[in-house]
Structures are given as structure tokens and as C-alpha cells.
């Protein structure tokens, strides 16, 4: 039984708290009487209603206090569960500038709901063949306009030529492939030379997006152009030896004695696969471009091009930047299907899957085929070991195969195929096994064979957590088994 | 533009064979010889590859070759005379002399225990150190047979490579690459390693080289371990090879000492040389067209151009070479496509009739000519009207008028700029702000250049006047006497200085001493000059004390004594500035000799904004692709129907796939479900399909593949740009609130965007 003072506790937040204090006290007194006596008919009805309310409040408070006594701090500090989802969403418009960054870089949708679980791969991802077939059918509605834009940029060719003649280098940036524009400029240079009855200009085109590009190749090509007769169709290649710095020194010495300018036209110098993204190679190229007999025009595609040209490099180039937005598709610069697969976290079938690998292997020598067979068999062995590590084989008579199917979800199955591509064998182990089988006699020979695989994108290399070099194959298990079967048979 | 014949059907000619080659020598399609049976006949060629240059013909190719050639020759002549190569290599001469002496002493010293090391404090400007090296190499005759080799960080990844580059640098620097290769080949049997310093020792024994100076231009960025080893090795070999070390330091000596080990420090006998960055770099660079030695500068930089150059220098820390390049580009832009630029220095009488006609037409199209004619017509008298009519009808009369006006304008500009430059020099001397603000002089020049109508209506003038009034007369006299003679003569200060000096002489030394003694004593009393550092002689001591007392009395009296002289100075300055005020843009044909950023947008050529350009192209593609159709419509003969126009407009509004996807990404959060993105992308394609009359069926497999192809292409292009990337596991977990990991029923794909739309 509670006293009067207990009822006037400030924690009471229901409608009884709105009563006048005197009436409230009276009602509470009646309530205590109700509690004590069973005779309810003698009371005024309105007073009785109030008394019942007050009694209910009293019971509620009592219950709360009892609970508090029994479980003092079960919820703990902080926000209660689910409170986060109850917040009102941030409105899209009228966000102050200082908050806009946080809104635009929010993790989830604006209404704070988790993102959907719709699957893109359920639609069926495109293969190379499908993509190529569909892209051939596609007709760009802006084709005429893009062509006109290209022609408009062509009007700047005399200006570019003048700037190059004044020992500036040019960098073209903006959206769209600029490869065709660069080719047109090269044509223009040739056309101008022919018009003046001057020798054919020496133009070296470098495709920064080409995977096989390296600095030695570039320097040797420039050396070839330097020594070739201007009108020679197929000049004999010149091969300079040594480190790139040494080759460059030799080249610069020879450039001092030539009367002909060499035009370097570099496509996509900032492409992700371009060797000229590194500071060392950039310094090398800048040193070459600083020579008065070298005119350099390059194209950049990414918005971060400023980061690859530090101020000292930029001074060496004497770079001028021109916006050359063309809207042309990056057909050559991108490998669309592989890039998207990589973006989605899937390994691309770079050589056209198992068929492509088989095709390449047919053109390789016997020991290369043997080495690839060994590599595949080792990886499949590891895969088998992994799979049977904690899970019994379906052939096990004590296990119902249907149970296994139920436990192996599609996610896990997919994870297995992913794992097949991620599994690798240690470089040293493979070399030992290859030596034991007399596939290769030396480390150099072994590396030569691996390089062949790597060039054909049949081999992946990565380093594990301990820094050990691991060799893998960019195929899933089924494809590996197919290739291995073909090799063995 | 008939020079550029870009046939639309020629663009696929080179795609087939060269686009996937890494590097190749380009052969033009027109000159490609397919299936030739015998070698081509040798053509007679016009000289060498460096053929004579010219500008393109302007006025829709109405210009003659002569006018284009004249512009080219004028540009070539002016740029050769105005370019500031000397300013680029300007270094502190005293420090350079000390450095040379230090290295001479080091080479002469025998039995050195430590490695002589010069620490060059060059500041943040990398080009400053390069200037020092260039100047140092020109001073090398004083050092006898010495070789300077500059090693940079990338040349020294380890000790072996550093030594190899050192040996190579010395031999190549002395005798050339071929000698180096031969030398290596000759000694390969005995000394197989090309980083063995014994190679260098033997080379030095055969060649008279007295000193090898090794320069590490960016010493602070060197790997400290490699540097320690290098110093240790050089120290060990210095009894056989006379090494000296030169280190470029951008911060301070103390910070650098903390970076390297104590053992390394012990092996060096270091001395610091301060090559502080040049404070008046831009001012010096701009002096090419404003220098007093030039007989008649023909080209002037607008205040807007100077302001941009100043901003670029301050904000981006441009080197002298960059600024010089910008200046060159301004000249190039001015002459390349400006038909009236040839009036800056052309003898019009030598032009033939056709050229005069083209030039007169260009002149009549200029804004300044229109304003000039309007002003004449506003006078509303017969003479002016007749003059305007003659200028419009008679080419020869117009060109003669223009020639006179251009010469007058150039002279007025030159005089005004000289006054501005001199007054800026006076302000620097008076206010002493240049110590705190390196570009103070240029700031004042820009401020005065902007105040076209009245140079006295500027903050710089007010500050200078206030400073003159506050200064003690003796101090003011010292400042005025310390000014360069050019400033004094331009601002007519010589009489004022004499008056001030005579006033001081009469007031301070009533008993009469010579003028020479007075000025010397005044200098001593103010504590200025070198003589103040020396202890005063007994006879001088008495005079100095007496003068100090007099000076303090003068200071207490305020402006009673010096007011007439100061007033004279202020009157002279005000008059000079007011008479030199000139609104250059109001002069007739100022377009011929004034370089303005209003007409030449050169800053984007040096400071590009690629992200803004790409985002603009993606978000507002109609800026690039839409206007062409509008142009076609306007050029057509009006036979286009409304439907054609509407269709073309709608087609222009069709977004390229990458633009569509980028727009969607801008609206999305950081982590995006690819399926949702594709669905949204597909919904954006529907209107375009409906417009083209294609039936759209969501369940159609072919339709799905076609949409997916565009989606793939757009996604791959955005990935190449770095605008999207793969999502990390943590990001996905946060985005899905862990549902993806919990459900495990579907393989959900996410991508992450890397850029945000901005404010």
C-alpha cells in the first residue's frame, strides 16, 4: 500500500497529472478507500472515474518501480535498438553546403534503408561475343555531331603545330577518345609537309593503353625513326641496349646531330596500364621531350591528370593543355567486358575461357604444355583438398546427398568457383615439381615459360600475406578440368 | 581552313592495323604505297625539316601570304628581344662567389680528412637550385678542370646504382657517351663492375680533372641509408678522387641534420650558402617589355594579364621557366590570329594594295575604331563627319591615321609604365613591405595600372604620402638618395632631393661644414650604412653626438623644418602621376600592342581543370552536341518542317550512355547495387527508344542484351576515368546493414562511386 506522497511522484506523465492538485488528492484518497472497501456504490460517479484513473496510474508506477528493482540496467547506455532506423530521412533539397558532402557521400539510400538485395548476375552477364555482337548493332544517335566536333577540333591543328614548333608540348584532355583526333593531326602534319615539298615528318605514335607497351620499346622505336630515311616505308629496327637511362642518353646524343624533328604522339598517357604513369618513366619522357628536336603531343583521359605531372616535370615538357572533348567511345582504350567483370569482382575470361587457353596451348611447345598441365593438376588437387577438408564427400555412404545439396547454398557454390580462381600454387613448389618431371632445367627456363603464359593472360600471379609469390589460373574449376582433360588426352 | 581537309570517310583508315600496336612509326594514308614493285623515285626536297614558318591566313583566308609572314616575323623579332632568359638564371651573386671560393679552397686543400660539403639553401622552388647549377657551370673555368655531376633521387635507388651513375656522369660530362662506352669495354676484364670507383680513379689519372663535384639536388628526399653509404664511400675515396659534395636543401640546415646519421655528419665539413628565392621574379620577367634600355617597346601587358601572372606565381609557386613560358604563350596568342597585330611595328607604306585593303578591313572591325568614330561623330561638326567618312572609305588614309595613332599610343604607354614602375620602386623603398610580401612591387604596379584615369586615386599613393609625412627628413633623404638613378630621373626627384638636402644642411649645421661631411654624419646618426658598424674615431665622435642631439630636436619639432621640402616632394609626385594617368583601352588600335587576358585566355592552357571539363561534358552534353543541329537549322533555307526540328531537338537531348549513368551516379549514395543501377539506367533509355519508334519490351531478351551492352560500355568508361570502383566488403556490409552476409542466397554486386557532385 502506497501513501499519498508516493502518488504525487513527478514521474507520472499521464492524464491525471493535468488535474487540479486538490481534486487530484481527493481522488487519490478515494482510490485508497476503494482499495480498502468493496462498497463502490456509495461514491460519486465522476469522482469514481477519476479515482480509477489514479489507481491505474498508481499500479503502473508500482509496476515500473518493481521492474526497475528487479532488472536495474538491462538495456544499458546508448540508443535503444532500432532507434537508428526511426530517424527521419534527410531531405534532398535545401541542404546547407556544409552538409551536402555528407549527404552525397552517404553509404546507403536517403531514407536510411539498407540497399536492395537484387542481383545483377541473375540477368546473365554478357560474354565477349555477346557484347561485340550487340555493340556492332548499336548506332550512336550523336554520330554526326561527334564527327562535326572532331572536325571543329581539327581547326586548331595549325595552332597546335605552331605551339609544337615553339618547343611547347601539348596535352589534350576532356571526355571521349582522342585517338582519332591524334591520327587526324598526324595526317595533317604529313599533308602540310607534302604541301611544302618538305620531307615526310617523322611521327612516332605511342598507345598508352596497350598492355605490351614498355619504355625500351618506345625508345627503340624513336631511335628507329631517327635513323630512318624520312620517306622509307619499312625502316630496319634499331635496337639500343642498356638501361632506359642509358638508351635515353644515347638517343639524346644522336638527336643533337639530326636536322629532322620527331613528333611523339602519345595516346592515353594516363591510362591505368600505361608505363608512363610512374614518376621514373615520366621523368624519362620529360627529359626526352625537353630536347628541341622532339615535339610531344599527348592525350589524357582521366580527371586526375594533374597528379602525374609534377611541377618540375611540367616545366621540362613546357606543357600546354587544351580541352578536346570528343564524346567518341573508348572502344580501343577499354576492354569493356573484362573491365566490368573486374569491377564486379569477377575474374574476366581474358583468353576466351578454356577454349582460348586450349587454342594458345596448341601453339606452344611441348614443355610449355606439360608445365601448364602440371600447374592445373596441382591447383585442382589443392581445390579437392580444400573441399574435402571439413565436408564429407557425397559418396560417403553415411551421408544423404540431398542433405549436402541443402547445405551447399548457391552462394557457397559460387564461392567455390571464385575460390578456384583465387587458389594458387607457390612459385618454388611448382618449380621443384617441374624440375622433377624434367619440364625445365633452370630457373630462367622456368620463368621464360611462365612469361609466355603471362603474356597470353593464362596465368595470374599474386603475393599472399607472407609475401610468397603464388601462381594461379584465371579459370574456374570446370574449365580447368576441361583444359586438363584435353592436355592429358 | 582549307589546309585541313578532314574528309569524314577517311577516319577509319588507320584503325584496322595500328590501334592495338603499342608503339609504331606513323605513315600517312595518302603516302602509303601498297604493292609497289620498285623503290620510289627520290624527290627533290625543300631544304631541311625545319622549313620556314608562317601563320595561317586570317579573314577566311582573305589575307595574303605577305601579311601572315609579316605577323610571324614581327612575333619572332619581338619575342627574341623581349624574352627574359637572364631573369631565369638570376641568383644571389655574393653567395655564388662564396660558393665558388669554397670549392676552389676545397680543391686546393691537401690531406683532407672530411668531405667538403656545400649546403645550398634554395627554398621551395626547385628551379632555383637548377639556376644555381647553371650559373655554377658557367663559373667552372674559375675552378679549373672540374666536373659537376648532378644526382637525383631516382638515379640512386641503391649505392651501386648511385656509384654507377656517378662514374658515368663524370666520364660522359667530360668526354661524351661514346668515350664512356669504349672505356667500359676496355676495362671490362680487369674491372668488370661498372660501379667500381677504381674505374673513375683510372680515368682521372689519364685526364686532367682537378675536382669532381657531386650535386644532390633534392638531398632531403634521398633515402637516408643510401645517402649515408654514399657519403661514407666518397669520404673513403677522396684521397684518390678529389670529391666535393653539394646538397640542395629546401627546408633548413637543422632539419636536414636531424634526417641524417651522426656518423654521416662527422664525415662532412659543411658550410651553408643561402640562395634565397628571388623576390621580384615576375617583375623582372615583365621588365622585358618595360625596361628602360629598350629603345621602343612595342608590346605591353595589360593589368589583367599581370594580375593573372601574379596570382599564378603566388598560388601555384611557378618557376621562372614556367612564367617565361606563359609570357611567350601570350605573345604567341597575340600574333597568331590577330590581323591588326602587324600594326605594332609594320611599315605600312611597303604593303601592296590588296594587303592594305585586308588590313583596313580588319582595323574597321575593331572596337576601338568604332569608339573612335563614335566620339568623332558626337562632336557634330562637318570636319569630324568628313574625317570619319574618309576613314571609312579611304584605306590609305585610314592606315596612315592608324599608324600615327599607334605610335602615339605606344609612346604614351611606355611613358606611363615607366612612371608606374618607378613609383612602385619608390613605394617599396618607403614602405619596406617587399620584405614581407615578395610580390609587393608587382602588386603596386597592378594596382596603379588598374587605376587608369587617376593614378593618385589609389591606396598605394595614399600609403606613400602618409609614409612621407611620417618619416624624419633625414631618413627620407637617405631613402631618396638610395633610390636607383632611373627612378629619380623618371619621377623628377633630383631637385627635391637637393632642396631637402640644403634645408637639412642649413637647419642642422648652422656653423657650416661641407655637404659631404653632413651627409656622412647624418648617415651615422641614423645608424644606417656600413660606417655605423665601425667604431667612431675620436674627432668624429664629438660631431656625431652633437648631430644626434640636433636630430632628436628636429624630431621633437615635428614638421616645422621639413614641411616645405616634403610638400615639394608631394607636389612633384602628384603632378607626375596625374599627368601619367592613361586609360590604355581608350586608345585607338590598342588591340595591336596591348596584351589583355580579356582577349587571350591563356590561364586554362597552363592550369587545366580536367575534372570540371569531364563533368561538364557528362552532365551538360548539350553544350557540345546540341548546338550543331541548331546551326544546321539556322543555315538551312527554311524548308525544314516543324517535325524535323522537333525530332532533331529531341535527338540532341538523347543522352550518351555514359552521361546517363553518370547522372544516375550523382543521385546515388556511395555504394550502389548494380542491378538497381541497371534498372534505373534502362528506364532512362525508354524515352529515347519510344522516340525512335522501337517497341520496348522489358522481357525481351534481345532488348535486354542491347541495354546491357550500353550499360557495360558506360560502366567501363566511367571505371577507366576512375569515377567508379569496386566496393569493399566493409562498405557493402554497411550499405546492406549486414543483410547480404546474412541472407547468403544471392550474389549481390555493388560498385562504389569515387566522386561527389560538389557544392
From TrEMBL, chain B:
Chief location: nucleus
Superkingdom of the organism of origin: Eukaryota
Family annotation (Pfam families): ORC3_N (PF07034), WHD_ORC (PF18137)
Domain Origin recognition complex subunit 3 N-terminal: 23-343
Region named Disordered: 530-558, 629-657
Keywords linked to the UniProt accession: DNA replication, DNA-binding, Nucleus
Domain Origin recognition complex subunit 3 winged helix C-terminal stretches: 611-728
Entry coiled-coil feature ranges: none
Subcellular compartments: Nucleus
Family indicated by similarity: Belongs to the ORC3 family.
Protein name: Origin recognition complex subunit 3
Organism: Lithohypha guttulata
Lineage, opening ranks: Eukaryota, Fungi, Dikarya, Ascomycota, Pezizomycotina
Gene: ORC3
Amino acid at each position: 500500500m502506497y501513501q499519498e506522497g508516493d502518488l504525487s511522484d513527478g514521474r507520472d506523465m499521464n492524464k491525471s497529472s493535468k488535474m487540479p492538485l486538490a481534486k487530484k488528492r481527493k481522488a487519490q484518497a478515494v482510490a485508497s478507500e476503494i482499495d480498502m472497501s468493496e462498497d463502490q456504490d456509495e461514491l460519486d460517479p465522476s469522482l469514481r472515474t477519476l479515482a480509477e484513473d489514479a489507481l491505474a496510474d498508481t499500479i503502473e508506477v508500482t509496476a515500473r518501480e518493481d521492474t526497475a528493482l528487479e532488472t536495474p540496467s538491462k538495456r544499458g547506455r546508448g540508443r535503444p535498438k532500432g532507434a537508428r532506423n526511426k530517424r527521419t530521412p534527410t531531405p534532398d533539397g535545401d541542404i546547407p553546403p556544409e552538409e551536402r558532402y555528407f549527404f552525397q557521400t552517404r553509404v546507403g539510400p536517403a531514407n536510411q534503408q539498407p540497399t536492395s538485395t537484387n542481383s545483377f548476375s541473375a540477368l546473365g552477364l554478357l560474354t565477349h561475343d555477346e557484347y561485340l555482337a550487340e555493340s556492332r548493332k548499336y548506332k550512336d544517335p550523336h554520330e554526326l555531331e561527334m564527327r562535326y566536333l572532331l572536325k571543329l577540333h581539327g581547326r586548331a591543328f595549325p595552332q597546335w603545330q605552331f605551339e609544337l614548333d615553339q618547343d611547347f608540348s601539348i596535352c589534350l584532355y576532356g571526355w571521349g577518345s582522342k585517338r582519332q583526333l591524334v591520327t587526324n593531326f598526324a595526317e595533317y602534319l604529313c599533308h602540310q609537309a607534302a604541301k611544302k615539298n618538305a620531307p615526310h615528318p617523322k611521327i612516332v605514335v605511342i598507345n598508352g593503353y596497350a598492355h605490351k607497351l614498355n619504355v625500351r620499346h618506345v625508345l627503340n622505336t624513336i631511335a628507329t625513326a631517327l635513323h630512318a630515311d624520312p620517306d622509307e616505308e619499312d625502316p630496319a629496327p634499331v635496337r639500343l641496349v642498356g638501361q632506359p637511362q642509358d638508351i635515353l642518353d644515347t638517343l639524346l646524343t644522336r638527336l643533337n646531330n639530326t636536322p629532322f624533328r620527331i613528333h611523339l604522339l602519345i595516346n592515353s598517357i594516363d591510362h591505368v596500364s600505361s608505363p608512363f604513369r610512374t614518376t621514373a618513366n615520366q621523368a624519362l619522357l620529360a627529359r626526352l621531350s625537353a630536347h628541341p628536336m622532339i615535339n610531344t603531343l599527348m592525350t589524357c583521359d582521366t580527371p586526375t591528370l594533374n597528379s602525374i605531372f609534377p611541377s618540375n616535370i611540367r616545366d621540362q615538357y613546357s606543357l600546354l593543355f587544351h580541352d578536346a572533348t570528343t564524346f567518341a567511345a573508348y572502344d580501343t582504350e577499354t576492354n569493356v567486358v573484362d573491365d566490368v567483370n573486374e569491377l564486379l569482382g569477377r575474374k574476366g575470361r581474358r583468353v576466351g575461357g578454356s577454349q582460348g587457353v586450349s587454342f594458345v596451348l596448341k601453339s606452344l611447345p611441348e614443355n610449355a604444355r606439360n608445365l601448364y598441365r602440371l600447374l592445373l593438376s596441382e591447383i585442382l588437387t589443392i581445390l579437392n583438398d580444400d573441399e574435402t577438408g571439413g565436408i564429407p564427400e557425397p559418396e560417403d555412404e553415411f551421408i544423404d546427398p540431398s542433405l549436402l545439396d541443402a547445405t551447399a547454398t548457391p552462394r557457397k557454390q559460387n564461392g567455390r568457383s571464385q575460390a578456384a580462381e583465387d587458389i594458387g600454387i607457390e612459385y618454388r613448389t611448382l618449380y621443384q615439381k617441374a624440375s622433377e618431371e624434367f619440364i625445365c632445367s633452370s630457373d630462367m627456363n622456368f620463368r621464360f615459360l611462365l612469361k609466355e603464359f603471362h603474356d597470353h593472360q593464362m596465368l595470374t600471379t599474386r603475393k599472399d600475406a607472407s609475401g610468397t609469390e603464388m601462381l594461379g589460373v584465371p579459370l574456374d574449376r570446370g574449365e580447368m578440368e576441361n583444359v586438363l582433360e584435353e592436355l592429358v588426352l | 581552313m582549307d589546309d585541313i581537309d578532314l574528309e569524314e570517310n577517311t577516319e577509319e583508315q588507320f584503325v584496322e592495323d595500328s590501334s592495338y600496336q603499342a608503339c609504331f612509326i606513323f605513315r600517312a594514308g595518302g603516302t602509303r604505297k601498297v604493292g609497289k614493285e620498285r623503290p620510289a623515285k627520290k624527290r627533290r626536297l625543300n631544304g631541311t625539316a625545319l622549313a620556314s614558318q608562317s601563320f595561317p591566313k586570317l579573314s577566311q583566308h582573305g589575307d595574303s601570304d605577305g601579311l601572315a609572314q609579316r605577323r610571324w616575323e614581327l612575333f619572332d623579332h619581338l619575342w627574341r628581344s623581349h624574352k627574359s632568359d637572364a631573369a631565369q638564371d638570376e641568383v644571389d651573386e655574393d653567395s655564388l662567389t662564396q660558393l665558388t671560393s669554397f670549392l676552389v679552397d676545397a680543391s686546393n686543400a691537401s690531406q683532407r680528412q672530411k668531405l667538403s660539403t656545400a649546403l645550398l639553401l634554395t627554398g621551395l622552388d626547385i628551379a632555383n637550385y637548377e639556376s644555381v647549377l647553371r650559373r655554377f657551370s658557367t663559373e667552372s673555368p674559375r675552378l679549373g678542370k672540374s666536373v659537376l655531376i648532378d644526382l637525383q633521387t631516382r638515379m640512386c635507388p641503391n649505392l651501386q646504382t648511385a656509384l654507377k651513375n656517378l662514374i658515368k656522369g663524370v666520364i660522359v660530362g667530360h668526354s661524351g657517351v661514346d668515350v664512356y662506352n669504349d672505356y667500359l669495354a676496355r676495362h671490362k676484364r680487369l674491372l668488370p663492375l661498372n660501379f667500381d670507383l677504381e674505374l673513375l680513379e683510372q680515368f682521372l689519372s689519364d685526364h686532367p680533372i682537378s675536382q669532381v663535384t657531386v650535386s644532390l639536388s633534392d638531398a632531403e628526399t634521398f633515402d637516408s641509408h643510401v645517402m649515408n653509404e654514399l657519403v661514407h664511400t666518397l669520404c673513403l675515396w677522396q684521397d684518390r678522387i678529389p670529391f666535393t659534395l653539394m646538397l640542395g636543401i629546401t627546408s633548413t640546415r637543422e632539419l636536414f641534420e636531424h634526417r641524417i646519421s651522426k656518423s654521416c655528419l662527422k664525415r662532412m665539413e659543411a658550410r651553408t650558402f643561402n640562395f634565397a628565392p628571388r623576390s621580384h621574379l615576375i617583375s623582372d620577367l615583365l621588365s622585358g617589355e618595360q625596361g628602360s634600355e629598350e629603345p621602343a617597346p612595342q608590346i605591353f601587358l595589360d593589368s589583367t594579364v599581370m594580375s593573372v601572372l601574379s596570382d599564378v606565381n603566388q598560388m601555384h609557386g611557378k618557376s621562372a621557366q614556367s612564367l617565361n613560358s606563359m609570357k611567350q604563350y601570350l605573345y604567341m596568342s597575340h600574333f597568331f590570329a590577330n590581323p591588326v597585330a602587324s600594326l605594332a611595328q609594320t611599315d605600312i607604306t611597303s604593303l601592296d594594295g590588296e594587303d592594305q585593303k585586308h588590313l583596313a578591313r580588319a582595323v574597321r572591325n575593331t572596337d576601338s575604331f568604332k569608339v573612335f568614330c563614335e566620339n568623332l561623330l558626337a562632336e557634330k561638326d562637318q570636319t569630324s563627319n568628313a574625317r570619319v567618312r574618309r576613314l571609312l572609305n579611304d584605306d590609305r588614309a585610314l592606315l596612315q591615321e592608324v599608324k600615327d595613332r599607334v605610335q602615339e599610343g605606344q609612346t604614351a604607354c611606355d611613358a606611363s609604365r615607366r612612371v608606374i614602375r618607378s613609383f612602385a620602386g619608390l613605394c617599396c623603398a618607403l614602405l619596406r613591405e617587399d620584405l614581407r610580401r615578395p610580390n609587393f612591387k608587382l602588386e603596386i604596379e597592378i594596382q596603379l595600372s588598374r587605376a587608369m584615369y587617376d593614378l593618385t586615386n589609389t591606396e598605394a599613393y595614399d600609403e606613400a604620402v602618409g609614409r612621407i609625412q611620417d618619416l624624419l627628413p633625414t631618413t627620407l633623404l637617405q631613402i631618396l638618395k638610395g633610390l636607383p638613378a632611373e627612378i629619380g630621373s623618371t619621377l623628377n626627384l633630383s631637385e627635391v632631393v637637393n632642396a631637402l638636402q640644403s634645408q637639412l644642411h642649413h637647419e642642422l649645421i648652422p656653423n657650416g661644414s661641407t655637404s659631404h661631411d653632413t651627409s656622412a654624419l647624418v648617415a651615422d646618426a641614423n645608424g644606417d650604412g656600413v660606417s655605423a658598424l665601425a667604431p667612431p674615431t675620436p674627432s668624429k665622435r664629438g660631431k656625431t653626438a652633437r648631430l644626434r642631439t640636433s636630430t632628436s630636436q628636429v624630431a621633437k619639432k615635428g614638421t616645422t623644418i621639413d614641411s616645405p621640402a616634403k610638400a615639394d616632394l608631394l607636389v612633384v609626385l602628384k603632378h607626375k602621376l596625374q599627368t601619367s594617368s592613361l586609360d590604355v583601352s581608350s586608345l585607338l588600335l590598342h588591340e595591336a600592342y596591348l596584351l589583355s587576358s580579356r582577349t587571350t585566355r591563356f590561364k586554362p592552357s597552363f592550369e587545366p581543370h580536367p575534372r570540371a571539363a569531364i563533368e561538364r561534358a557528362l552532365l551538360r552534353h548539350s553544350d557540345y552536341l546540341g548546338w550543331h543541329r541548331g546551326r544546321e537549322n539556322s543555315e538551312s533555307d527554311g524548308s525544314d518542317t516543324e517535325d524535323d526540328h522537333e525530332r532533331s531537338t529531341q535527338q540532341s537531348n538523347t543522352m550518351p550512355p555514359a552521361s546517363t549513368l553518370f547522372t544516375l551516379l550523382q543521385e546515388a549514395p556511395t555504394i550502389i547495387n548494380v542491378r538497381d543501377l541497371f534498372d534505373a539506367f534502362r528506364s532512362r533509355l525508354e524515352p529515347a527508344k519510344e522516340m525512335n519508334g522501337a517497341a520496348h519490351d522489358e522481357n525481351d531478351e534481345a532488348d535486354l542484351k542491347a541495354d546491357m551492352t550500353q550499360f557495360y560500355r558506360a560502366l567501363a568508361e566511367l571505371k577507366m576515368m576512375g569515377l567508379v570502383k569496386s566496393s569493399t566488403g566493409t562498405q557493402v556490409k554497411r550499405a546492406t546493414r549486414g543483410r547480404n552476409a546474412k541472407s547468403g542466397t544471392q550474389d549481390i554486386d555493388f560498385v562504389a562511386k569515387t566522386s561527389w557532385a560538389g557544392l
